[in-house]
Specification:
This protein is an alpha/beta fold. It is built from 14 helices and six strands. Strands 1-6-5-4-3-2 form a six-stranded mixed beta sheet, sandwiched between helices. Helix 1 crosses helix 4. The longest helix is centred in the first third of the chain and has 47 residues.
Length: about 350
C-alpha cells in the first residue's frame, strides 16, 4: 500500500468518494464526444469516396475499363490495401451516399453509418427523407429504424394527408400539433408474434401489449408516456375500466385506448365518449387539454362509425390494428395515387 495515500484519514475519505464519479463522468463524456467525432469523419470520408467513384464513372472511364466490374474491382483492391471496411456492399452504399446526398444536403452527423445503410436502401426520396428526419427526432436505434421501415410507417401516416402535407411530412418529419397527428391506421402489432389465424381475446391482447410496452410505445410514436391499464372510473358507485391509458407530453392530454377484437358497435363508441367525459371532468388539471379516445379494432364499418360519432367529440377515433406486417406495395401505390391525383386535379382547373 502507498503510504502517501491516507486511506484511514477521515478528512480524505469524503473527498475521494466524489473522485471516481467525477472521473467516470468526464470519461463517459469524452467517449461520447470521441464517438461523435469518429462518426462525423467516417461519414465525410465515405461521402468523398462515393464522390470519387461517381466522378470516375461520369468521366467515361468506367465503360472502357471496368464496366459493371468496377465496384468488385475496387472492393478487392481496397481490401488488399486497408483490410476490412471495403466489402462490395459497403462500396455500393458509399456511392449511393454521394448520389443521394448532394453537397447542399450532406448526410446528418446525428446518425451513424449503419443508419444510413438502412436509409440508402429506400429508393423514394420522400420516404427516405422522412425516415432520416424521424430517426433524428425520435432517436431511433438501427433496429427501431428497420422496424418502422418494415411496417411502412411513412405510408401509414401519409395515407390520411393531402399532397402538400405528404411533402411537408417528408421535409420535416411528423409534426405533432393536433389529435389527428398521433393517429395511425392501421396500427401494426407484429412484434407480438401472434399468428394471423390465432385471434387473441381482448384480455390476452391487452396483456401482450402491456408486456411488450417498449415496442408498443415505439408503434404509438413520439410523446407517449404510460399511465396504466384497466384504469378504474367510478360514476354513481358503478365502476368502469378503460383498457390502456397514456399521457401525451406534446399535446398535453390523456390518451385512452379501448381494444376490440370484433367489429366496433355504436355502444363501444358511446362507452368511449363516457370515458372521455369522465377524464375531462375528473382527471384533467387546468394545464391539460381535452382527452383523446382511440378504439382499436381489427374491423370497422366506416358508415356505422360516421353515424355513431355524429355530433360527438372530435377527440374520439376508431383505428384498425393488424397482427402482421401490412402489404407495403399496396400502401405505396395508394400514397402515389394521392400525389398523382392531386396533380391531375390541379391541371384540370387550369
Amino acid at each position: 500500500m502507498d503510504d502517501n495515500f491516507p486511506v484511514s484519514d477521515p478528512d480524505a475519505t469524503p473527498a475521494y468518494k466524489s473522485l471516481p464519479g467525477k472521473i467516470s463522468e468526464t470519461y463517459t463524456y469524452g467517449q461520447v464526444k470521441a464517438t461523435h467525432a469518429v462518426n462525423v469523419q467516417l461519414l465525410e470520408t465515405y461521402w468523398q469516396i462515393g464522390q470519387h467513384i461517381v466522378e470516375f464513372e461520369q468521366g467515361g472511364n468506367v465503360r472502357a475499363t471496368y464496366g459493371k466490374a468496377l465496384i468488385s474491382t475496387l472492393s478487392r483492391d481496397l481490401t488488399l490495401l486497408h483490410g476490412k471496411g471495403f466489402s462490395r456492399s459497403n462500396i455500393v452504399y458509399m456511392r449511393l451516399l454521394y448520389l443521394r446526398s448532394p453537397i447542399s444536403q450532406k448526410p446528418s452527423h446525428q446518425l451513424s453509418w449503419s443508419h444510413f445503410v438502412e436509409l440508402l436502401k429506400i429508393d423514394d426520396d420522400l420516404e427516405r427523407k422522412f425516415y432520416e428526419n424521424q430517426s433524428i427526432a425520435e432517436k431511433w436505434s438501427v433496429p427501431q429504424l428497420k422496424r418502422q421501415k418494415d411496417t411502412a410507417l411513412f405510408q401509414r401516416i401519409a395515407l390520411s394527408k393531402n399532397k402538400a402535407e405528404i411533402l411537408n411530412l417528408s421535409a420535416e418529419g411528423q409534426q405533432i400539433s393536433k389529435p389527428t397527428d398521433i393517429l395511425r391506421d392501421p396500427y401494426v402489432f407484429e412484434f407480438l408474434k401472434i399468428p394471423e389465424e390465432q385471434l387473441p381475446s381482448e384480455q390476452e391482447l391487452e396483456n401482450l401489449l402491456s408486456n411488450n410496452l417498449q415496442q408498443f410505445l415505439l408503434e404509438l410514436g413520439k410523446g407517449f408516456t404510460y399511465v396504466g391499464r384497466q384504469y378504474r372510473m367510478t360514476i354513481n358507485n358503478k365502476h368502469y375500466r378503460v383498457d390502456l391509458v397514456f399521457y401525451h407530453r406534446i399535446l398535453r392530454c390523456f390518451v385512452l385506448f379501448d381494444l376490440k377484437i370484433n367489429e366496433v358497435q355504436h355502444g363501444d363508441i358511446g362507452q368511449m365518449n363516457l370515458y372521455l367525459g369522465y377524464f375531462a371532468n375528473e382527471e384533467n388539471t387546468e394545464s391539460d387539454n381535452p382527452p383523446i379516445g382511440i378504439i382499436l379494432t381489427k374491423h370497422k364499418d366506416e358508415l356505422l362509425i360516421e353515424y355513431a360519432t355524429y355530433g360527438m367529440s372530435s377527440q374520439l377515433f376508431v383505428s384498425k390494428y393488424q397482427l402482421y406486417l401490412p402489404d407495403k406495395a399496396d400502401l405505396i401505390a395508394l400514397v402515389n395515387h394521392t400525389l398523382r391525383s392531386e396533380e391531375g386535379d390541379h391541371q384540370k382547373t387550369e
